Amino acid sequence: MNILSTMNIGSSALSAQSTRLNAISSNLANVNTTETPEGGPYRKKSVVFRSAPAFENELTTREEIQGVRVDRIISDDSDPKRVYDPSHPDAGENGYVEMPNINVVEEMTDMMTAARAYEANVTSIKSSQRMAMKALEIGR
Amino acid sequence: MSADIFGGNAGFLHKVLDLRGEKHQVIASNIANADTPGYSPARMSFQEELKQAAEGNHMGMSTTDPAHMGTHGNGRFDAVTGSISRPLENSEGIGDGNPVSVDQEMVRISENQIRYEAAAQMLSRHFDKIKFVIRSGK
User: Fold this and answer.
1) How far is CA A47 from CA A31, A34, A72, B48, in A?
2) Which of A24, A75, A113, B48 would staple A43 via disulfide (CB 3.0–4.6 Å)?
3) The pLDDT of residue B122
4) B5 membership: H or E segment, kind and range
């Protein structure tokens, strides 16, 4: 077992999960954003994960041992929410404003899942570390 | 791997540490991929294979013909590689095609860690004994 490569698996998941947390924070921050550089209201972002070999340069590891990485970030193209607010500067002629299609409850639960997944991977890294320390103690 | 003065146990424990280390990687990769769509968790097992290798060791079979396969030393432990399977392949999971259960994997990872530490400690004790003998009991 290569100690450092074992930690690579966990660390690949940590960066993937924090990218997911970033996307969620961005969704929550932009829950009322009606103007974006691309035009129209903000669109919900989601990340797509894909399993990937954790170590590029190691031939000895089995292919079953995989890390994870963010494959792509997708924008939700579903129709924006229409809210009646004639006083809003971005309101259309009929008084409706196009708001981002973000469900705050959904984002909050997604955030909790991502945080727990992050913690699980921290535990797995800690476990690798403890095993490595134990191995170093052999013969001491 | 290990020289004979360390005894058969050292070779055995060495292999246990190797395999447990690899099993740790397998479980860590399941946890890392807990949210990857279409990923199915891998399971590593080696107990049976290792048991057979260890039992062969104690039987003390003798090679009375050059065509017999050698059964001495710790070489046979090296042949133990364990096997990895994906028993839940093509399972639906919770709708994302991913049947990884993080809590179950956490249980597995800590069990594996404890067993790894036990083997490390036993190996340590084993070397302590040798050290004790080398220092002629001092």
Assistant:
1) 17, 22, 6, 41
2) A75
3) 92
4) none
A131, B20, A13, B94 alpha-carbon torsion, rounded to 10°: -130
ipTM value: 0.82
How far is A122 from A116, CA to CA, in rounded Å?
10
Global confidence as pTM: 0.81
CA atoms within 13 A on the CB side of A138: 19
Out of A1, A16, A120, the one facing B24 most closely (by C-beta) is A1
Single-letter amino acid, residue B93 = G
Chain A residues touching residue B123 (CB < 8 angstroms): 138-139
CA distance B111 to B43: 14
pLDDT (tens digit per residue) in B67-87? 665 544 445 777 788 888 888
User: Per the CB < 8 Å rule, is A6 touching B21?
Assistant: yes
3-class SS of residue A123: helix
Q: Give the angle A61-A67-A71 at the CA atoms, nearest 5°.
A: 135
Token reading at A44:
């919900």
Do B24 and A127 count as a contact with CB atoms less than 8 A apart? yes
B84 contact residues in A (CB cutoff 8 A): 62, 64
Show the beta-strand stretches assigned E in B69-127.
83-85
| DSSP helix/strand/coil, A84 | strand
A124-138 mean pLDDT: 91
Q: Compute the mean pLDDT over every residue in chain A, rounded to the nearest whole number.
A: 88
> Which tokens hold the place of A120?
């699980």
B27 to chain A, any CB pair closer than 8 A? The answer is: yes
Query: Where do we find the tokens 């220092």?
Result: B135
B107 contact residues in A (CB cutoff 8 A): none
Nearest beta carbon to residue B32 from set A64, A67, A114:
A67
User: Does B109 reach chain A within 8 Å, measured CB to CB?
Assistant: yes
